[in-house]
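In full, the data:

***
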Amino acid sequence: MQRHPVIFVGAGPGDPELITVKGQKAMMAADLVVYAGSLVPETLLKWAKNATAVNSAPLHLDEIIHMMADAVKQGKKVVRLHTGDPSLYGAIQEQMVQLDQQGIPYTVIPGVTAAFAAAAAMKMEYTLPEITQTLILTRIAGRTPVPESENLKALAAHRASMAIYLSIAQAGQVQKILAEHYGEDFICAIAVKVSQPEERLYYIPVKNLSETIQKEKIKSQALIVVSPFLNMEKSRMPYQSKLYDKDFRHEYRG
């Protein structure tokens, strides 16, 4: 009997049309879709009309692996559907280790992470010529620890663009750190459920971050974005990319 690989698919930020074409095709061909129900909207399941869909939220790791491995051994096509991109806070490595131990093949299809959906919603560019050329994707330490060399305070010292995941519950700590390195009046953004019908965007000074999160009752599926872009007038950008400069020629212009 042919064994099809388990396919880890990035669901994207929530809009069912922001899944990749390859991910959509995998969903449409699946017999079993195991999805992270606490984060992946059920609207994504419209691409899996012929599959049995199982919400993994109430299941522990061993149960998830057993379900997927058993289906593969029966010759079924299995999709493990994760929010955003599976490689970013997706907890897929522990699943891969167990699949390896059982000799179950797997592949990964990337997805659109919330940081890029937020940038699209805010019509912004994280990397501005001569202003910032670095985007940091990170989180503050919570129940999941962060290596000391990667703590938020150390990263904020760069004053680069940052997308801070999984940190809403520690908003007070985040605010204190951002105020120290960017300033209390530096404009940041809270992007909630970007690309989904419930999408909300808040542009606020750092000093109002924690208060806004409490007032608006923001508890999950929210990203804190910090960037020089949010503190500049679009019409007065001081520098422009050399890519389209009339006096600059090279082979990569598109």
In short: The chain has a mean pLDDT of 92. The longest strand covers residues 187-192.
